[in-house]
Amino acid sequence: MNASVGDRLHVHGNTVGQPDRAGEIIEVRGPEGGPPFVVRFDDGHTGLVFPGPDAVVEPRTGEGVPTER
């Protein structure tokens, strides 16, 4: 999984009742665009994320509207 600054990370809830989380990737710390990523989530929380199989990177398009990879 590779990403660029400005892409969005969408993490699906992995248990019943757990909401999905989404946020903007503000820093890529891995080699060649790989994880870990620093993500500013929509709730204002910022954290270092090593995405698992329940995560999807949505690349930023030219219009600023994310699309799914």
Automatic annotation (TrEMBL):
It holds the Pfam family DUF1918. Residues 1-22, 50-69 are annotated as: Disordered. Residues 1-57 form the DUF1918 domain. This is DUF1918 domain-containing protein. It comes from Actinomadura namibiensis.
